[in-house]
Amino acid sequence: MIYELEIKNRAVKDLEGLSSDERQRVSARIDELHNDLHGDVKRLRNFIPRFRMRSGDYRVLFEVEGSRVVIYRYRVRHR
Fold this sequence. Notes:
globular; five-stranded mixed beta sheet
């Protein structure tokens, strides 16, 4: 399934705060979510948002809403 990506403003600011190498790496991993949630994606229990994707030392927390992947504010963080 192909997903539409929606990145909230706060998540964009989190990405901008990373070094350029880390930003490129995390952005590439976020783009992989576009195609059937490929990559190191895990469903979380008893936690909202319900999914996490790992990229090196960083975690991207997101929700799947129908055919959209929504990355919320404060959700691109160093583990």
